[in-house]
Structure to design on (690 residues):
């Protein structure tokens, strides 16, 4: 089924239903048929949704193209103003405010609904009037309940929302699958390829919140010589191509590359699209909506911009708890399977994501909102079940052993007044001589391959004391434990990594301060017993209960425990030096930070869903440590083998004392001592550490 065929009946429905919704919303703005305090809420929601509907009509008529930059900036500000931190206390987007105004239970539910309505802003800019129509009908149906003489019960409203997502979830899921293999869904690609990038009005075509980060980045890239832009694009696209090459995957079988990028980088992305097209790949951009059904606040949006309020996103990240149950999950899995089956051939042409990330945002320490939705224990298990089952379905049609990816990161202006210097230094870090690193890393691997265990200890305030069990080599002449990772899928260069054996991996991992997936963790401490997390703690909140809940949700991703899926030694001391020189260590993304010291990933291994695909280092040796005792269960029960998460936690060199290889004969040899590399031939790595 093509994209046009899928949407045809919905377009026809919209032509009739959309005007009726618009008219009814206008009536709601002035009617007095509901009691206070609900009347104020419904008027506010109707006005906002009506504004989005009017905006979609203006865009359809091409009126946005005639607005000045100042007019577009004003419009953008108006759309997001009420949830900005300075206005958030009195916003219906704030669960605490809706609870205070409308009651704890109904307020929580209506606040969730309003957050979903606010999530439709980009849909209006895309002209997706069908979604505006159905959410308008949902708001009207709930409004009608409050027009009755008796105030509705919370369960009645919850059931309306439940059946809305049960019925329309099919469409949301279909669109997500369609977007992976439908180049004709080209709204974002047209912004990249057709815009006059010197006219910064183009940034407001997305409908996202636009700040100085986006337009100053665009201005900065516009000033760069074409050869520098091309070099950035080449690093990005070549990493993608080499990722297929070094893993022996056939890129010629693929037709679609999934672009994921930050607004403001369109000039680089235009050059990248042309590079990909020369490889025979057409760009697609996955549609991962920010409505609660799709997992609002989980960072899955393919085109990113600065968040207007990260606390707002944090408060609404679990809104799906309002209606999530087993029947809904099973329904969604059924639809996902059908959607992929209907596009089996096209799905097989999907090559994987090519990601540009940014760093430099101010750190975020979330506050717990008692009125916000939280998943109860059964729902946590359902989230885990959904993640596992959906990944299995996806892997059936987009096979892990046939796809690849690449990730690269650049700073944003928010990083500080030295933004341009840091950007230039990041480009240098991203283009270091991978041959030199390959040689030095091989020397480290030659030592590590002698080991039965590796012992890692911290120093100063870092209490890390961890023993990692290594995969036992059977044929050292042809096999290796560690991958020699250079700048291909995982830019920049600089790590050697393995999948540890779980049995025998014991001890404590400690980091005094670390940023993981946008959240700041203070005094993060994880204890491992036979490779599995046995306890965990941090000091983000005042109570242990809050800290445990925070870690369970955001680090363990609702699992009771996770294995150590990866042990790696980062070798990019140049990146570490950059962090020190500019005082941005805490702002470096995981992509770069993981190269600036040893790191440990909790969750799946780096080879999940592709363990049976042979992988070789440049020296010709096969990397045999591609699984652990958990992932070996995949042939019996994949639900027990995978966790669908992988979070890297890095110990910076200044908190690191030793990394020592323990041999089977009882002898030992240091790879790092007092935070410095000791393997002969790796001396250049220590120069930036001095």
């Amino acid at each position: 089924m093509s994209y046009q065929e899928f949407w045809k009946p919905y377009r026809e429905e919209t032509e009739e239903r959309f005007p009726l919704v618009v008219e009814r919303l206008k009536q709601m703005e002035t009617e007095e048929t509901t009691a206070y305090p609900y009347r104020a809420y419904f008027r506010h929601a109707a006005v906002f949704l009506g504004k989005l509907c009017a905006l979609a009509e203006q865009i359809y008529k091409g009126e946005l193209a005639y607005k000045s930059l100042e007019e577009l900036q004003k419009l953008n500000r108006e759309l997001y103003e009420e949830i900005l931190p300075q206005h958030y206390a009195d916003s219906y987007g704030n669960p605490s405010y809706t609870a205070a105004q409308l009651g704890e239970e109904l307020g929580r539910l209506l606040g969730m609904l309003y957050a979903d309505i606010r999530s439709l802003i980009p849909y209006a800019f895309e002209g997706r009037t069908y979604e505006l129509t159905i959410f308008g009908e949902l708001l009207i149906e709930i409004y009608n309940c409050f027009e009755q003489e008796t105030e509705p019960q919370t369960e009645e409203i919850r059931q309306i929302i439940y059946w809305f997502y049960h019925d329309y979830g099919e469409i949301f899921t279909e669109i997500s699958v369609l977007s992976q293999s439908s180049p004709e869904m080209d709204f974002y690609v047209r912004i990249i390829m057709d815009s006059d990038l010197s006219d910064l009005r183009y940034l407001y075509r997305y409908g996202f919140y636009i700040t100085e980060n986006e337009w100053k980045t665009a201005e900065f890239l516009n000033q760069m010589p074409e050869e520098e832009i091309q070099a950035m694009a080449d690093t990005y696209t070549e990493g993608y191509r080499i990722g297929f090459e070094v893993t022996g995957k056939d890129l010629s079988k693929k037709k679609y590359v999934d672009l994921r990028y930050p607004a403001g980088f369109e000039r680089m992305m235009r050059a990248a699209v042309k590079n990909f097209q020369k490889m025979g790949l057409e760009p697609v951009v996955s549609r991962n909506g920010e409505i609660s059904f799709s997992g609002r606040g989980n960072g899955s949006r393919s085109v990113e911009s600065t968040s207007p309020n990260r606390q707002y996103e944090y408060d609404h990240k679990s809104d799906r708890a309002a209606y999530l149950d087993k029947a809904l999950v099973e329904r969604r899995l059924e639809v996902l399977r059908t959607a992929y089956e209907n596009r089996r051939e096209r799905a097989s042409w999907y090559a994987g994501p090519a990601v540009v990330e940014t760093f430099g945002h101010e750190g975020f320490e979330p506050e717990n909102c008692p009125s916000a939705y939280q998943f109860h224990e059964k729902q946590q298990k359902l989230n885990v079940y959904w993640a596992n089952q959906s990944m299995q379905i996806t892997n059936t049609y987009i096979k892990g052993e046939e796809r690849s990816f690449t990730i690269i990161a650049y700073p944003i202006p928010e990083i500080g007044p030295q933004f341009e210097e840091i950007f230039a230094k990041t480009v240098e870090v991203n283009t270091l001589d991978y041959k030199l690193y390959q040689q030095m890393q091989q020397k480290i691997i030659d030592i590590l391959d002698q080991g039965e265990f590796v012992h890692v200890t911290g120093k100063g305030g870092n209490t890390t004391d961890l023993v990692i069990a290594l995969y036992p080599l059977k044929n050292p002449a042809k096999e290796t434990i560690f991958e020699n990772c250079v700048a291909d899928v995982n830019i920049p260069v600089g790590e050697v990594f393995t999948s540890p054996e779980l049995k025998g991996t014991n001890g404590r991992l400690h980091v005094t301060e670390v940023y993981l997936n946008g959240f700041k963790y203070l005094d993060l401490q994880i204890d491992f017993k036979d490779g599995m997390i046995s306890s965990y703690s941090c000091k983000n909140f005042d109570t242990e209960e809050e800290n445990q809940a925070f870690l369970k949700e955001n680090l363990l991703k609702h699992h009771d425990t996770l294995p150590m899926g990866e042990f790696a030694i980062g070798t990019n001391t140049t990146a570490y030096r950059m962090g020190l020189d500019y005082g941005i260590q805490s702002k470096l993304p995981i992509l770069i930070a993981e190269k600036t010291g040893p790191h440990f990933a909790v969750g799946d291994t780096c080879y999940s869903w592709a363990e049976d695909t042979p992988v070789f280092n440049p020296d010709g040796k096969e990397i045999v440590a591609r699984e652990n005792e958990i992932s070996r269960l995949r042939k019996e029960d994949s639900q027990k083998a995978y966790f669908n998460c992988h979070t890297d936690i890095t110990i910076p060199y200044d908190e690191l004392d030793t990394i020592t290889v323990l041999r089977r004969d009882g002898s030992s040899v240091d790879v790092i001592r007092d935070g410095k590399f000791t393997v002969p031939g790796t001396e250049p790595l220590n120069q930036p550490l001095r």
